[in-house]
Amino acid sequence: MSVYVIGDLQGCLEPLERLLRHLPLKRQDRLWFVGDVVNRGPHSLETLCLVRSLGERATVVLGNHDLHLLCVAAGATHSRPGDTLSPILESADRKELLEWVRGWPLLHQEQGVTMVHAGLLPQWTVSQAGQLAGEVSALFRSDLYHDFLPVMYGNIPSHWENSLSGIARWRTIINGMTRLRICSADGAMEFGYKGSLRNIPDGFMPWFAVPQRRSAGEFLVCGHWSALGLHQGGDIQGLDSGCLWGGPLTALRLEDRVLFQVEGMPSRR
């Protein structure tokens, strides 16, 4: 059995269909998705339905755009210019689709591989990150879910403390795992920067470059940072190669780290 990890889709149905035809898939093979399955691309509903049709073969973690879908659906925030979520919200299968997305974890760990949408704060081991992601999954299954969504967004706290509790704790876990790109050496997150490695603000660095990062040496796959592009940095495999923005759609076969790519959407940058 092979496992293929696929980068951010963001509603780009045609590249996904081409990639699935391109991969040497066998019946028992599995497909992991690094999050941001929906939004901004032209076919969010159809992309979500295709991933769902894969059944137990598919493993998906939550990305920031998937969380945005849940918040808009719950009335916790408004749609933004460029959103392509309306077909999902108007679908006859709306309830079932949203419940399915709500059940996605923030992080998936299996056989020595950790998959997360954005990254891990430098204070977290992969074991601790798994426990923290489990706390958020339990929250999303609980009666507190609808009360939490309106207060989920926010940039404070900017860094992790084990003593955090309640809303501050859950928000920081979610921010770290779905929004993180750069942080300071002590783990303070900066959310405004979305560019490449060349122009990172002084005092900040890619989350995976922080000295003495506690997840160092563990094999991590992620997405989220399209301006970074495909990143193969030893223990870090960043698979958001900018399919939505004119780059390719990328899949990584875990067993031998072989890459597969197909052409993405026409450039929008």
How would you classify the helix and strand content by structural class?
Answer: alpha/beta
Classified by CATH, the class is: Alpha Beta
How many DSSP helices? 8
The overall pLDDT, averaged over residues, is 97
Describe the main β-sheet briefly.
5 strands, mixed
Strand content: 15-25%
Gap from first CA to last CA: 38 Å
CATH topology: Purple Acid Phosphatase, chain A, domain 2
Q: Mind telling me the C-alpha Rg?
A: 17 Å
The CATH homologous superfamily is called Metallo-dependent phosphatases
Overall 3D form: globular
Task: Tell me the series of helices and strands, N- to C-terminal.
Answer: EHEHEHHHEEHHHEEEEEEEE
- Give the proportion of residues in helices: 25-40%
Q: Report the count of strand segments.
A: 13
Main β-sheet, spatial strand arrangement: 3-2-1-12-13
Poorly predicted tracts of residues: none
Under the CATH scheme, the architecture is 4-Layer Sandwich
Number of domains: 1
How is this structure best described in words?
With 269 residues, this protein is of the alpha/beta class. The chain has one domain (3-262): Purple Acid Phosphatase, chain A, domain 2 (4-Layer Sandwich), CATH 3.60.21.10. 28% of the residues lie in helices and 17% in strands. The protein has helices at 13-22, 44-53, 64-73, 86-89, 94-102, 126-141, 145-148, 166-178; strands at residues 3-6, 30-33, 58-60, 107-110, 113-116, 182-183, 189-190, 205-206, 219-222, 231-233, 236-238, 249-253, 258-262. The chain has a five-stranded mixed sheet. A five-stranded mixed sheet has the order 4-5-9-11-10, with helices on one face. The longest helix has 16 residues, at 126-141. The radius of gyration is 17 Å and the shape is globular. The mean pLDDT is 97.
